[in-house]
Design brief:
By secondary structure, the protein is an alpha+beta fold. It is built from nine helices and 14 strands. Strands 5, 6, 7, 8, 9, 10, 11, 12, 13 and 14 form a ten-stranded mixed sheet that branches. The chain has a two-stranded antiparallel sheet with strand order 1-2. Strand 1 and strand 2 form a beta hairpin. The longest helix is centred in the first third of the chain and has 13 residues, at 54-66. Mean pLDDT is 76; it is low at 1-51 and 77-83. It comes from Perilla frutescens var. hirtella (Perilla citriodora).
């Protein structure tokens, strides 16, 4: 994992004394190593790091960077002459700015897009950043009708999902859906693409598979969110728009974009509140 440059300086200076050591606190000796490249599988099994995905690990680093020097010193502990930071905890919901767009990040419209009807105060979830260019879904446009009422050609769905609300995902015509399953059926199916931990997306080609999973009670119909349309950019186009100040790029916890948040007009304000007054751009 490539860390943000302002974090590197402080983490390096903080961890420069931290070498491999053994702790006697837990009975049998446990070997602990400080690593700046990200959590290894054995790290996440250890007592000092919370089991989570790499985005949560990075969020704790960002929280540590934003903490005052006194708080950082108070979080340090001495073990056999080696200084190591104890893990910094983060809340259930978090969001922070990042420098470059990545899969699973958010694009948050700035005041420069005020007056642009489609994108004003939008929150866009980037589904991919592939070689063709980034694609994403607008998350905070309320749904006014169901799939059946909309009669969308982008999502030809009958039966299992016909009564589900249909949200506006962007100006380009294509049917997509998000699913945040409570069980592991979606992950095991291998049909849907994981965009962040516990959140998957699919296209109109995989709707049939999704309907079959609902019939088999592998997942509930209420766990799906359907979108008519999506957003897309050429790779350099999005970078230029970010540099021009049209978008703030942010990482967030999956709980920020949970199902109840999709279609909420207050999502834009909520994410800005989680990030606080500090902005990158």
């Amino acid at each position: 994992m490539e860390l943000l440059s302002p974090i590197n300086g402080r983490i390096n200076s903080t961890f420069k004394k931290c070498n491999k050591f053994e702790t006697k606190k837990f009975g049998a000796p446990v070997s602990v190593s400080c690593c700046l490249s990200g959590p290894s599988p054995q790290d996440e099994e250890g007592p000092f790091l919370i089991k989570s995905d790499w985005r949560s690990f990075r969020a704790r680093l960002v929280a540590g960077e934003q903490a005052s020097p006194l708080k950082e010193l108070s979080a340090a502990a001495e073990y056999d002459g080696a200084t190591c930071l104890l893990p910094i905890t983060i809340g259930d919901k978090w969001a922070h700015t990042i420098h470059e767009p990545e899969k699973g990040c958010l694009l948050i419209a700035t005041e420069k897009l005020d007056g642009v009807h489609i994108f004003e105060r939008t929150v866009i979830l980037l589904l991919s950043t592939g070689p063709v260019g980034p694609t994403g879904l607008i998350l905070n446009r309320p749904s006014l009708m169901s799939i059946k009422e909309m009669r969308s050609s982008a999502l030809d769905v009958s039966g299992a999902f016909s009564e589900r609300p249909l949200f506006f995902g962007g100006p380009l015509e294509e049917g997509l859906f998000l699913v945040s399953p409570r069980g592991g059926g979606v992950e095991r199916s291998g049909v849907f693409e994981e965009v962040m931990k516990g959140v998957y997306y699919g296209t109109k080609e995989s709707v049939g598979c999704a309907a079959e999973m609902v019939k088999r009670s592998a997942v509930e119909a209420e766990e799906f969110r359907f979108f008519d349309g999506y957003c897309a950019w050429e790779r350099q186009q999005l970078r230029d728009e970010i540099r021009a100040g049209y978008w703030t790029v942010a990482a967030c916890s999956p709980t920020v974009i949970e199902q109840t948040s999709v279609g909420s007009v207050g999502l834009w304000e909520e994410i800005l509140g989680l990030m606080g007054p500090r902005k990158v751009w």
